Amino acid sequence: MAFARGKVILLGEHAVVYDRPALAAALEQGVRSRAEASGGENELVIPPWGVRWRESAPTHEPTFRAWQALLDLYADHPWGPRRRPLRIELDVGLPGGGGLGCSAAMGVATLAAIDEVLGIARSTHERAERSLVWERVFHGQPSGVDSAMAAAGGIAIFQRGREMRPLSTPEPVRLVIAHSGVSSSTHAMVQRVAQLRELSPERANAIFDEIAALVDAGRRALEAGDLAMLAASMNRNHELLYDLQVSTPELDHLCEVARAQGALGAKLTGAGGGGCMIALVADAYHESRVVEALRAQGRETFAAGIATQPGESRR
Ligand code: PMV
């Protein structure tokens, strides 16, 4: 049995695609994967989604293709799934299309479950890198932040092509996460930003640079336990994501609702165009106020625990 976490991007989405750093945090929620010898052929089962796929009956579903791409990694292994088929069952504890790294967690957990059966040991970095074949089916050119967080846990600075830099903070980080009710397509939103960048490269690069500066300020704030400062960076980051045209009126509204109930700061998280918003709250009192207000908007909302020390969030 293997487990990989979902994640939120506290600061830096989209700019991270253009080699700027991002500040991300792993969630308690994630995906469990179990691999076991199958009597017949390779099988993928995802009970809550009603999925029971067999390799001999291919579909065009991206998750089917991602699973096949992952199995291909083991093509030359003498006991790999191409020679000794596996039944893989996934228990998905994250909303898909929510910007919470669900697909990356599925890929990392599945790779880890197959590795477990075959007795393959890998570093978390290698696990994240290898599982990118799964993510690429969904996102084309993912920065890799989702897979890196799914594999490593904790809070970290991620920058494309570099080792992740784990952070610790003296203060507990409490987040409230609300889904806007609209599923978001990371691929489409990344394309939208790419078009914007083609039309006005100077403007787009200036926004990416400002986001990078917010990531740096947010990192220092977290390390010092200054949540108000982190929240100020989140609020400004949301404005810049609005300028990149990846926010929606609903996401803007949910951020306003959270701030009005005393959230220190709020922003969309992930690709935008739908998906989730996150609100940083100071304590349990504000957490429940913000959760209630967002639920009153009819939005699926939950309070998320974030591990504040590297490694603490591993299960
Ligand atoms: O997959 P999501 O929705 O959590 O978004 C990932 C963050 C982006 O920066 C928008 C894309 C990427 O590949 O980093």
Name some characteristics of this structure.
binds (3R)-3-hydroxy-3-methyl-5-(phosphonooxy)pentanoic acid, 315 residues, disordered C terminus, alpha+beta, 10 helices, 7-stranded mixed β-sheet, 4-stranded antiparallel β-sheet
Number of DSSP helices?
10
Class of secondary structure makeup: alpha+beta
Number of strands: 11
Order of helices and strands: EEEEHEHHHHEEEHHHHEEHE
Question: Spans of 5+ residues with little confidence (pLDDT < 50)?
Answer: 311-315
What are the distinct ligands in this entry?
A: (3R)-3-hydroxy-3-methyl-5-(phosphonooxy)pentanoic acid
> Could you tell me the strand content as a percent range?
15-25%
Query: What would the average pLDDT be, to the nearest integer?
Result: 93
Query: What is the approximate shape?
Result: globular
What is the percent of helical residues?
40-55%
Sheet of most strands: 7 strands, mixed
How far apart the termini lie comes to 11 Å
What integer value in Å does the Rg equal? 19 Å
